[in-house]
Every structure is written in structure tokens, then in C-alpha cells.
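The instructor's notes for this session suggest beginning with a concrete chain rather than abstract definitions. Hand out the sequence below and ask the class to guess, before any prediction is shown, which regions might be ordered.
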Amino acid sequence: MSRSDGPHRPFLPIGNPFKMMMHKTSHLPSTVLTAYEKCLAERFRQLKPTNAADVISFSWMKSALGSICETLDDIRNLIVDLELPICSWDGKWVDMYLDNSLKLLDFCSAYGTDIVRQRFGYVMLKCALLDLESGNPQKLMLASSSLHEWMQYQRRYDNSKLQDCCDVICKLEETLNLPKIKNIPKAKDLVRAMYGLKVQTMFIFSTLVAAFSTTRRTLVDLQVPKEYLWHGSFTELQTVMNGEIKNIYASGDIYPLKELRMIDQNVKKLYPLLQDGLGEITQEIFNGYCSKLKESNEKFLVGLDEVKSEMDRFFKVVVDGRMALLDNFQQQPPKRGVQQVRM
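After discussion, reveal the predicted structure:
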């Protein structure tokens, strides 16, 4: 795994955790696994933006979270199609699944907290806009102070909960090398399918973190074996997303999220005018700046709420999966037919 340069701690440590787990076996994927991997490949293709301006947007974030939910559904269907019921799993498999799903819930919790912080930024700007609309000179001074406070607030609290999200991604990385399965093709299919889910989740999670980060973070560059049917579409998606985020930083912007960049641009137009006066700028142009900031701020709130709603849905899907696993596993004592060997 390669990493881009940057002063901040990367999501993943040096090394390539994406080592092919079955590279020394002649095992061929089953028909149901092939169908699963083709669906995953299509999801990666659908997430690839056709316009560079859409990297990263609230719309993309919502679609990305939805795609993980779809893959989780596919995993459940795959277990049924493989006739590999949860009650037949080794106890260590259950422990591993519960531990990994708990990490997903930890990410949802930390990211949800940062969404709340973003809502507070919206409120700050809304107060500034109300002061601007009043036309009162004293209110204009308050508006100027609010705009400055918003810029400082975004930078000051960047690493609060986002770092917790990064820690979860690092912990997920540690579980990528799933246990090898001995002489059980169906179990090997499930291991391979879970690998795809983890790669998808890690990439999307790391991109979600980058969206709200105002400091240049190291982007993950996941190296996936070519044997996977979704290798090509995933690699293309990762190249496009990471490349455009790097371009955004290179251009001087500090907000990878499209909707935040729009707000920042409007704030930077208004703040100097409130400090130094309109100068050659007409009142009409000034009012236009205010209207654009109000519009971009309202769009930001709508997008933020949509992402929060999708994150809540993802949280529920993970919780329901944990409960279903426990219910099925407790139906009868686990069988020991699925033997694990150390890597």
C-alpha cells in the first residue's frame, strides 16, 4: 500500500495488508460468489463521478453509504445461497463478525458526533446572515465577527471526532487478513466475499472522513489483487477520488466537500467587505453575495441531514445483522466443521 505525503498520521500503517488470502490455492469461486462480485463491481462503477466537481459531494456520500448497505444485504443472501447457515459457523467466526460490526458502529457514533458539529457551523452562519439582513451597522459588526468565528471554528475542531474515525479505520485494517479456511469451498467463498465488503467499507469510510477534514490527511491507496472481479472498477474509482481530492488541496482549497467549498468561497467574499467596506463593490453585488451564502448554507443543511439519515440507516442495518446472527447462532450449538488455520 502506498501513501501520499503529508504531516498527519495516515489511516493505515506502512505495508500491504491486502495480501491475497488464497493465492496458493486452486479454489475457483462459485456461481453465487461470481454474481456477488459482479454486483460489487457495478456498485464501484456507479460511485465513480462523471464530473470532477462532484468529488466529494453530499450526494456521493449518501450513495456510498447506501452501497455498503446493499453489499451487507448481498452477504446475507450469499450465506443463504451457499447453504452455510450461521448456526454452523465456528465460534471464532461469530466473535470476529461481532467485533468487526462493533467497529462499524463505533465509526457511525464518531461520525455522527462530527455531523452535529457541522450543524453548529450552519447555525453560526445563519445568525451572521440574519445580522446582515438587518442592515444595522452594529449588527454588521456582529456578522463580521460570526463569519470570522465560523472560519476559526472549522479549523480548530477539525481533529476532534474525525481522528476517532481514523482510529476505527486502522482497527478495521488489522482484521483484513481473514483466517484461511481448510478444504471447505463454501467457507472460502464467504471469506472472499467478506474481503470485498471490508475493502469497500474502508475506502468509503476514509473518503467520508476526508470530506469534513480541513487539514490535509493522508489518503489510503488500497492495492487489491487482480483475481477479484471488482478489482478494475474499484481501482478506477479510487484513482479518480484520490486524484481529485489531491487536486483540491493543490489548488489551495482546504475543504474537499463540494458544499463546504461553496460556503467557504462566499464567506471569503463577504468577510473582507465587512472589515474594510464595500469600496468599488455595489450594494447590489454585496446583496448577491449574501444571497449566495444563504443559499449554499441552506443546501449544506439539507445535504447534512440526508447523510445523517443514511448513516442512521446504515447503523440500523449493522445492528439488525448483529441481532440476527446472535439469534441464529443460539438456535443450536455451533458445529466445528469449519476449521481455521493461522495465516
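Then share the key points. DSSP finds nine helices and two strands in the chain. The mean pLDDT is 82.
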